[in-house]
């Protein structure tokens, strides 16, 4: 990932995590998503079964704030971002998530909150997972 043509975050095997913070999100919300994300067993084991978590494979995280995930496109052709968290609140919660992730994952890289970032991704495998309140138990 680059900002102003300077590499600011880069990982090897692991997750690229796009984080959208909503108006009603809080630390409890963040903790729930982190627990689910870090527990996902989507890496292949010795039998070629997706049975290993990020910690099992000593994976890394690239965590990127992405308010545009809250784009509401229900009406018209211009997305509305009214449901996204206010910048100060969203940045505080994003930084909290990064701090908590670093307590459990040895390599956590980040983007630059509020900056124009260029993200390159090589998706090696079948998984792109959306963690959303409505899709989690």
TrEMBL record:
<dbReference type="Pfam" id="PF02580">
    <property type="entry name" value="Tyr_Deacylase"/>
</dbReference>
<dbReference type="GO" id="GO:0051500">
    <property type="term" value="F:D-tyrosyl-tRNA(Tyr) deacylase activity"/>
</dbReference>
<dbReference type="InterPro" id="IPR023509">
    <property type="entry name" value="DTD-like_sf"/>
</dbReference>
<dbReference type="GO" id="GO:0005737">
    <property type="term" value="C:cytoplasm"/>
</dbReference>
<dbReference type="InterPro" id="IPR003732">
    <property type="entry name" value="Daa-tRNA_deacyls_DTD"/>
</dbReference>
<comment type="similarity">
    <text>Belongs to the DTD family.</text>
</comment>
<protein>
    <recommendedName>
        <fullName>D-aminoacyl-tRNA deacylase</fullName>
    </recommendedName>
</protein>
């Amino acid at each position: 990932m680059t900002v102003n043509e300077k590499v600011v975050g880069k990982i090897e095997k692991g997750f690229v995590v796009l984080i959208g913070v909503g108006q009603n999100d809080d630390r409890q919300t963040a903790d729930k998503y982190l627990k689910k994300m870090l527990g996902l067993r989507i890496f292949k084991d010795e039998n070629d079964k997706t049975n290993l978590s990020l910690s099992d494979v000593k994976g890394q995280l690239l965590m990127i704030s992405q308010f545009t995930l809250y784009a509401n496109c229900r009406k018209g052709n211009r997305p509305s971002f009214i449901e996204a968290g206010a910048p100060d609140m969203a940045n505080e919660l994003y930084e909290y998530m990064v701090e908590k992730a670093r307590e459990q994952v040895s390599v956590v890289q980040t983007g630059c909150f509020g900056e124009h970032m260029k993200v390159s991704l090589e998706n090696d495998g079948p998984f792109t997972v959306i963690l959303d309140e409505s899709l989690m138990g």
